[in-house]
Amino acid sequence: MFNGLKKIHLLILAAIIIVFFLSRITNLSNYPIFTDEAIYLRWAQIAKNDAAWRFISLTDGKQPLYIWLTIGVMKIIADPIIAGRLVSVFSGAGTIIALFLLGKLVFAKWEIGLLAAFFYLISPFSFVYDRIALMDGTLACIMTWALLFEFLLIKTRRLDVALLLGGIIGFAALTKTSGFIALYLFPFMFILLEYKEKSFLRDLLKMFLFYLVIIAVCQLFYAVLRLSPFFHIIGQKDQTFVYSFSDWLKNPMANVEGKLKGLLGWAIQYLTIPFLLLTLSGIFAGWKFFRERIIIFCWFLVPLTGLALLGKIIYPRFIFFMTVPLFLLAAYSLLYFGRFVKIKYFWVVLLLLVSVMPFLLTNQLFVDPTQAKIPRPDANQYFNDWPSGYGIKESIAFLQKESIDKKITVYTEGTFGLLPAGLEMYLTTNKNVTIIGIWPVPEKIPSDILATAKREPTFIIFFQNSPSPDWPLTEIFRVKKGSADRYHYLYLIDPNKK
């Protein structure tokens, strides 16, 4: 597999990885923490401090591998936000290495792997998900390695590779339920078998047996979740986002067109039209490696179609792992047409034309993400609407200062999510701070809150709605959430105010 590997290839790969880490780690904490990040990081904190809660994510139907990885980093890095986001950063680095190896394994050219890694580096899609504490970056990394080992298995047909592949897909399933998709996509590899060979039936049977081994190992890994009494919640949570087969049969084409347009629209916004045109042209770039290119495209098309058919609630992050293999198609296409068109340095010009839009959007995400033209659901969740955590840092700093020499109480709008978890990550060890979540917030101030405010300094934070005028409040500060007309409010509850 490493035939033809030269020092120049390693030097270019090293340069890509160095630039990758510089671009992802620089100002890593500048993005505001958002709702899901706060939940996951708080879970990791709790599980880190109490081994009995290592499966805490299952209480909300979420697989725990990302939480476990974050626990490991938290033992080294004190800041929970940095720790959780570093897991995503290193996952992105792992994806780059997998793409580099895939270029050689699938297309017999290290240059294709390097170009795919470069496209990943400048992609705004990867830039966002390499810098936030979500499971999707880790899933994309593991799924890319699963694709690598699926190609490796079909080429080597070795039991040890099948066992490793089963473990990799098991890790993907322990990250998100969508990790099982790697299992469903494996049969596409069978088209690489040589049908004209006398040994075809024997090879087909051998690969089918390997498939059973992969499924068994994957299920063995996944069975660890059955140690938790909350295992059944995963199925309940999945039904929030995906139709069950029986429900789907009642109206199989419900909103499919709209969902498909939305998913493709998000892919176009993140990947940009020039890149997608280059990718699609890669499918038709000659007959050499045609079957391999079809398989790679299926890793995008099949799960995307499945999501359009079965998805109830969809977000752009659901398609991130599906888009990563497209970098390989784009790289193959670039080299193919760069050599097919007999114009000197044509491939360099083509590379610049394809790269300029992703690079500019990635740069905007680095400089001022609130103005970046990314899909609206992501822009709203991460930067411009109530799920974004603008104001959390300022509130923590203020409350820490206020509690230096006295006890205080802070109420939060909400009992689960950005608040109170965003505060708890930093303030639960402070014995002078009591954090209490309330939902819904009543129109009139409850008597017990008023009694607390008479006893000690008491504050309340609103981040979704404006406070009721019937509450006796004095505004401490407000922080605007991105470019939207949304604010994070911190108030002092003043019992003497009329």
Labels describing this entry:
alpha/beta; 2 domains; D-Maltodextrin-Binding Protein, domain 2; 498 residues
Please, could you describe this protein's structure?
The chain has helices at 7-25, 35-49, 65-74, 80-107, 110-122, 124-129, 135-156, 159-173, 181-185, 200-222, 233-241, 245-250, 256-271, 273-283, 290-310, 320-323, 326-340, 346-367, 376-384, 392-402, 418-427, 447-455; strands spanning 408-413, 433-438, 458-462, 473-480, 487-493. With 498 residues, the protein is α/β, with parallel strands linked by helices. It has two domains: 7-381, no CATH class; 392-493, D-Maltodextrin-Binding Protein, domain 2, CATH 3.40.190. The protein is 60% helix and 6% strand. It contains 22 helices and five strands. Helix 1 (7-25) runs antiparallel to helix 4 (80-107), helix 2 (35-49) packs across helix 3 (65-74) and helix 13 (256-271) crosses helix 15 (290-310). The protein is globular. The longest helix is centred in the N-terminal third of the chain and has 28 residues, at 80-107. The model has no long low-confidence stretch (mean pLDDT 93).
Radius of gyration over all CA atoms, rounded: 25 Å
Judged by helices, strands and strand pairing, the structural class is alpha/beta
Largest sheet: 5 strands, mixed
Q: List the total number of helices.
A: 22
Strand content: 5-15%
The low-confidence parts are: none
Average predicted confidence as pLDDT:
93
What order do the strands of the largest sheet run in, or round the barrel if closed? 2-1-3-5-4
What order do the helices and strands follow?
Answer: HHHHHHHHHHHHHHHHHHHHEHEHEEE
Q: What is the number of strand segments?
A: 5
